[in-house]
Design goal:
6-stranded mixed beta sheet; 5-stranded mixed beta sheet; alpha/beta; 4 helices
């Protein structure tokens, strides 16, 4: 497994005692749980309070593997029928005092935030995938968070995974793998 480094960070403090740790991944695009995938899950998810997958798993074997963790998830546009039958396209997850809208996303990366905002009301953050490009953006009190793709980063993004910690606020960071 390669070197892992922080790529983006939004006011997260090391440790944050008492914080809820959420590992966020998207766009795994795997047919089976590879050794590299299992090692990354062990490294990031073993001590997580919640794991969120934002879709484009591709095959149900990945969903089955991640169910060993406290999982919340949605289906993506590239997922097989069995995943789309088991998971919604979008949902709202409560984490501490916050409401997190989670979805995969669809269509062109251009205008994706405007499309997704219409899907959720009364949320503190919107987590999405689809673009394969990491993003942390606070806009009008709303946190936009895209962890990028675990294995198929686009452009200069590379492979990445997100970690969100929740206490009195929502703090997010992205690790480039």
């Amino acid at each position: 497994m390669g070197h892992i480094e922080r790529q983006f960070r939004d006011t997260i403090e090391a440790g944050m005692p008492g914080a809820i740790k959420i590992v966020v991944m998207s766009d795994t695009h795997l047919c089976k749980a590879t050794d590299e995938f299992k090692a990354l899950c062990s490294q990031f998810c073993d001590d997580a309070d919640m794991v969120i997958h934002l879709g484009d798993w591709e095959r149900v074997e990945i969903l089955n593997y991640l169910e060993q963790y406290p999982l919340d998830a949605v289906a993506g546009n590239m997922d097989d029928y069995s995943i789309q039958q088991r998971l919604p396209a979008r949902k709202i997850v409560r984490a501490g005092p916050f409401r997190l809208g989670i979805t995969h996303g669809w269509g062109s990366p251009v205008g994706i935030r405007q499309r997704l905002k219409q899907e959720f009301t009364g949320v503190d953050a919107i987590f999405f995938g689809h673009t394969h490009q990491p993003l942390i953006l606070r806009e009008n009190g709303l946190l936009w968070f895209n962890p990028g793709s675990l294995f198929l980063g686009r452009r200069a993004s590379g492979k990445s995974i997100g970690v969100v910690r929740i206490q009195d606020s929502i703090e997010a960071e992205i690790f480039q793998i």
